[in-house]
Design brief:
Length: 282
């Protein structure tokens, strides 16, 4: 067989396999979108069928019905997720830079890094009760600040480790050249190191955004006031023991997924660079 023809057939087969795999992954998303424009009766009569009548009123009711006011839960999630991401990135970038660069040598540096990594082994569920007691003691229950602090505490360890790994691979010449030009440590960090770390920062933003945006158990434990609930808690209102509105529940899922999809599309190129950065030494 002609080598060119063989390569072409191989590419076609690989493309077909990838397209099939992609379609299988998209089936749940397509199904949820179709459910979001159907009534509960229509869904129960034929769960996997097409909508008999497209009901866009589900989205209008979801966002503007005064009894639902889904937008306020959306705003709560934006505030909590945005605050936690800013705090996580600030701490992890500074910590990763300090642990990753050889010139920052201080006592117990290795021990502190080991303790930091050891915290990854602790199960989150074992810390819920101590966290609840601590937040209660400091009067932070039923506040967005409690969620921001706890989300940051969970994410900062892994984020710092990834930043430390990336910063440790950057050549020392970048800092030496900037220092010769008269730059201080803060200027080197802000104008040179952080721009070089954009792929990893984009990766951390996507991963942490998905984690914070979809988190349920901590929010369920720390927040009991309805006006402070985040999106995952609000979605539980549509499906419960005494109520089951599958159409509205599916519409809330679609609205909750949109920010994640938009963020990934916006940062997808940086995300791929960040995922492969660890395999290449500078």
């Amino acid at each position: 067989m002609d080598p060119k023809l063989k390569r072409r057939i191989s590419k076609i087969l690989i493309t077909l396999v990838l397209m099939t795999f992609t379609f299988i992954l998209l089936i749940p998303f397509i199904w949820v979108v179709l459910m979001s424009v159907r009534t509960t009766g229509d869904i129960l009569s034929n769960p996997y069928g097409l909508p008999k009548l497209i009901r866009w009123q589900n989205y209008y009711q979801l966002m503007f019905d005064p009894q639902i006011r889904f937008y306020r839960y959306f705003i709560n999630s934006v505030i909590v997720t945005g605050g936690a991401i800013v705090l996580t990135l600030t701490l992890s970038c500074l910590g990763g830079y300090g642990f990753g660069r050889k010139r920052f040598v201080f006592k117990y540096r290795g021990v502190l890094l080991i303790i930091l990594l050891f915290s990854l082994m602790l199960p989150r569920q074992a810390m819920y009760i101590p966290q609840f007691v601590m937040m209660s003691k400091y009067g932070l229950l039923n506040t967005r600040i409690s969620l921001i602090l706890l989300y940051t505490a969970f994410a900062v360890t892994m984020s710092t480790y990834l930043m430390q790994t990336y910063f440790s691979q950057l050549p020392e010449e970048f800092e030496e050249s900037a220092r010769i030009d008269g730059a201080n440590d803060l200027q080197i960090f802000w104008h040179i190191m952080l721009p070089l770390a954009r792929p990893v920062i984009a990766t951390l933003i996507i991963f942490n955004f998905m984690t914070f945006w979809n988190e349920l158990l901590i929010a369920l434990t720390m927040v009991t006031k309805s006006e402070l609930r985040t999106l995952p808690l609000a979605m539980m209102n549509f499906i419960g023991e005494n109520r089951a509105d599958y159409g509205m529940g599916a519409a809330s899922l679609v609205v909750g997924m949109l920010p994640v999809v938009i963020l990934y599309v916006a940062l997808s190129e940086r995300f791929v660079q960040g995922m492969t950065a660890g395999a290449i030494k500078g």
